[in-house]
Write a structure and sequence with these properties.
The protein has helices at residues 23-35, 112-115, and strands spanning 4-8, 17-21, 40-45, 50-52, 56-59, 66-71, 74-76, 91-94, 97-103, 106-108, 136-139, 142-147, 150-152, 159-162, 165-170, 173-175, 186-189, 192-203, 206-213, 223-226, 232-246, 252-256, 261-277, 281-284, 302-315, 319-324, 331-343, 351-355, 357-366. By secondary structure, the chain is mostly beta strands.
Length: 373
């Protein structure tokens, strides 16, 4: 017979009034959960309460093969930089295997004071922040499933997956204002077998509903940025299916620094819908921060075998399909199939633009394909 245990944080001293620091209770309850030898071990954040926490790190490995972190009560971050005890992520799971993070409650990062002190938006502000905390991070974790939670107002990225494997996200709702800086919905780095299913993400200027498989990069609004500072990027086997983009700055985007090396290969964009999107389909191998643009260099991250099939909708920019590839390391094996992009009401027409992009076109593609054979 399977055995189970439950560690209710109220039994470990949590007040649950949204004012008292309940961090210690969370750590005690996690210690009990992680060290339980039962088949199913649960840390319970009970409903009817709101729990204020400082940055928390939940370390593994744990003894139970099936860990549950059940968030039925709300969790809130401290009120801005002056209240955080350290500029660290709010909830970090490290070297944890077999974790299910579930619930129906909201985790609120209270990000506005951080955004108001962002170096990106306030470069002249003394003591501004270049790096701001993430709300939930998975580091060196395996077999993770996160579902049915609401994450709002993160200081920076809402979720970070880093050096992890077999991570699934289901039915998440992520929300932050359109003008919030760098509030990625889900940022994935150096990870494998990550899936994002049936989730609604309104993070900064990004709003997607999508299914995503097998990726190791930032994919909420793009694959990239890759190759920064001459680093080697190797990103392969990406599938982006059944995604809806509403008023985003970018749709299906791949962006790389021209100083980088490596390859982006075997990427499949399929059944995409765009609603007034600025750049529905875009590859940029000249990504940089110079407003005048950057020139071609002898190196670049090679982009190969990227397919776009079944894309429809409206473009808010005249160039609906923009492939700006490197002269020295061109894009290869790009394919367009059955694409119908029309201008938004504010535009009369849309077009495609290709620089050093080679591939093939199948079926009815509008605007007309510009790929070189």
């Amino acid at each position: 017979m399977a055995t189970s245990s439950v560690a209710n944080i109220l039994n470990y001293g949590a007040a649950g009034d949204g004012v008292t620091d309940d961090s210690l209770a969370f750590l005690k309850a996690w210690n009990a959960t992680c060290n339980s030898v039962t088949d199913y071990s649960t840390l319970l954040v009970p409903s009817g309460h709101t729990f204020l926490v400082q940055p928390l790190t939940f370390n593994g490995p744990c003894k139970s093969p099936n860990l549950y972190f059940q968030v039925d009560g709300g969790i809130v971050a401290p009120q801005g930089p002056n209240e955080w005890k350290a500029n660290e992520n709010l909830m970090s799971f490290v070297e944890v295997d077999g974790l299910s993070l579930n619930g129906t409650a909201t985790i609120d990062g209270r990000g506005k004071p951080w955004w108001d002190a962002s170096c990106r938006d306030h470069p002249q502000l003394q003591g501004c922040f270049g790096r701001m905390p993430t709300m939930v991070m998975f580091l060196h974790c395996t077999r993770v499933r996160m579902q049915h939670l609401f994450l709002v107002n993160s200081p920076q990225a809402h979720i970070l997956v880093w050096n992890s494997d077999s991570v699934e996200f289901h039915f998440l709702s992520i929300n932050s204002p359109a003008d919030s800086p760098n509030t990625d919905g889900i940022h994935i780095q150096a990870s494998t077998n990550v899936s994002i299913l049936q989730s609604v993400i309104k993070a900064g200027l990004h709003f997607n509903l999508f299914s995503l498989h097998n990726k190791s990069c930032d994919i909420i609004h793009s694959i990239g940025s890759l190759g920064k500072d001459g680093s080697v990027a190797n990103v392969t086997n990406i599938k982006v299916h059944h995604v809806k983009f509403f008023g985003t700055s970018n749709g299906a985007r791949i962006k790389t620094y021209q100083v980088g090396k490596g390859i982006v290969q075997h990427v499949e964009f399929r059944n995409l819908t765009f609603y007034d999107v600025q750049n529905p389909i875009i590859i940029d191998q000249h990504y940089c921060f110079d407003p005048k643009g950057c020139q071609d260099l002898p190196t670049a991250v090679h982009i190969d075998d990227v397919s776009y099939a079944g894309a429809v909708g409206t473009s808010a920019s005249e160039v609906a399909m923009n492939l700006n590839c490197s002269k020295t390391v061109p894009c290869t094996n790009i394919s367009f199939k059955e694409i119908q992009l029309k201008p938004s009401k504010s535009l009369k027409s849309v077009e495609s633009s290709c620089n050093n992009a080679h591939g093939s076109t199948t079926g009815n593609v509008k605007p007309a394909s510009c790929l070189h054979g």
